[in-house]
Amino acid sequence: MRDNLPDSINPWTLAKHGARLQGQLPRAKLRRLPDYVCALRSEPHIDWRFGIDREGQAYISGQIEAQVSVICQRCLQPCELSLGADVRLGIVVSEAAVERLAPGYEPLIATAEFVLADAVEDELLLLLPVFPHHPEGGCQMPPVSQPAEVVEIESRRPFEELRALWQRDQSESS
């Protein structure tokens, strides 16, 4: 299947037939990702292959890519990020089956059909950095203003007056 990605899929059927999903996921189908980014610069592109490995494990493997804009936590300006990762999901029917999942697979719990956009969003949300920032030297920091001239303020010494009075009293009494 190319470009016209379905809204929902049955991963078990796709794995059984060795299917491939490739295309762009429309922005309108993403409900959660916009809450975590300033802007989605490109529609997420997926290239997923479904299959069953030698041990009988149904899986999804492939790539996911998207361009997003987030707020840099150093300079608080927009920062462009390329999100991309290899996906290797083991399709399981329950939490109990997750424990038996072979190493190298991340679990995807699916009993029947599920919404494709939800799975894509899950993967993209996991790719977002906790502390997004520009590459080293890439921050557009505003110019630092020069410090104002330091004006010396006459400091008041309240006990100076007492000392002057005491000294005057000392000189008068002698």
Could you characterize the architecture of this molecule?
The structure is a single chain. By secondary structure, the protein is an alpha+beta fold. It has a domain of 120 residues. Helix content is 22%, strand content 30%. It contains 4 helices and 8 strands. Strands 2, 3, 4, 5, 6 and 7 form a 6-stranded mixed β-sheet that branches. Strands 1-8 form a two-stranded antiparallel sheet. The relative contact order is 0.16. The mean pLDDT is 86.
Question: Can you give me a brief rundown of this structure?
Answer:
This protein has 174 residues and is an alpha+beta fold.
Into which percentage range does the β-strand content fall?
25-35%
Structural class: alpha+beta
Give a short account of the largest sheet. Answer: 6 strands, mixed
Tally of DSSP β-strands: 8
> Span from first to last CA?
111 Å
Radius of gyration: 32 Å
User: What fraction, in percent, of the residue positions are helical?
Assistant: 10-25%
Number of helices: 4
| Secondary-structure element series | EHEEEEEHEEHH
Tell me, rounded to a whole number, the average pLDDT. 86
